[in-house]
Amino acid sequence: MQEKIKDLNIIMIYHGFAMLLLISVSYQRQFDNVPTGDPPKLKPGSKRIYQFRPGENLKLICPIENVKGQSKGGFLWKYRDKTQLVDIESYDETIKVKGPKLIIKNATESEEGEYQCEGINGFGKAVFRLYVFITNGTNKKKDVFSPKFIQKRPELDRIVKKGQDVKFFCGYKSNPPPTLEWYHNDTRLLEKRDKKFLTIESVDYEDSGSYRCEVGNVLGVVKRVWSLKIGRKEHTNLIRNEFKYENSKRSLIVNRFQDARLNCKIRLRNSANDDKKVIIRVKEDDNIFLF
């Protein structure tokens, strides 16, 4: 009887090993069936500005790799119509979309603008933006540059009374034309899109916080952030003046019980009228005792 029990235990052990082996093989097959690959990526140094003359054929190429041959892969072309991106599809013989290529025959001024291509596969998506200029039949190349702010010293910190009107100005120069977005505490203000001025009438406490404008074209993006605080009347006058220390000696080393003379120079700039500057110099003798 004991020998039969021993043989039965051995059989059960072998059976357990066999089951573990089958489970291991099953998991390995499932792992082998999982697709592997890389998400799409942009080719470095890709061209973002194209210039054509009227009547020429536009041929744009999407510089995104790792799309062809991948499962669930493909290219999608879009055109920015004012504030919206519109899908581009092949239409008769005028517009053709062939994978990464977009061909538009007999270009006119209506084809000038921003284009966007997307490369998609089963592992992700990459987006590339470019701009097309139609040069009106001239050979002169247009100057292009990323957005730049035209205000060098804007008033970024605002303290106002409740009920006042506040206006922010996001002035820029850019070519190609950019898009402009406004944000309040990281929430996009859709109704203020592409407007250089942001006006808040009769501000209340919920209007306080940070305001940000982002200006971007196919060459780059710039950002500017303001801080708005709702304060009491006596605090609002602080924003009208800006104090700046003039270059002066910041440290003084003297012997113990030696007299020391301190010279404090402060420049007061009136932001309401930049042409008027007042220099305030405060001189005071004092004794410094070192212990």
Describe this structure in words.
12% of the residues lie in helices and 44% in strands. It has 291 residues and is mainly beta. The chain has three domains: 101 residues, Immunoglobulins (Immunoglobulin-like), CATH 2.60.40; 85 residues, Immunoglobulins (Immunoglobulin-like, Sandwich); 46 residues, no CATH class. The strands form seven sheets. A five-stranded mixed beta sheet has the order 2-10-9-5-6, with no helix packed on it. It has a five-stranded mixed beta sheet with strand order 12-19-18-15-16. Strands 3-8-7 form a three-stranded antiparallel beta sheet, with no helix packed on it. 10% of the residues are buried. This is DgyrCDS10159. Keywords: Disulfide bond, Membrane, Signal, Transmembrane, Transmembrane helix. Pfam families: Ig_3.
How many DSSP H or I helices?
2
pLDDT < 50 stretches: 236-246, 268-291
| Level-2 CATH architecture of the largest domain | Sandwich
Structural class label: mainly beta
Shape estimate: extended
Total strand count, please?
22
The CATH fourth-level homologous superfamily of the largest domain: Immunoglobulins
Q: What does the largest sheet look like?
A: 5 strands, mixed
Q: Work out the helicity level.
A: 10-25%
Q: How far is it from the N-terminal to the C-terminal residue, by CA?
A: 99 Å
Strand order of the largest sheet: 2-10-9-5-6
Order of helices and strands: HEEEEEEEEEEEEEEEEEEEHEEE
Note the beta-strand portion.
35-45%
Mean pLDDT: 76
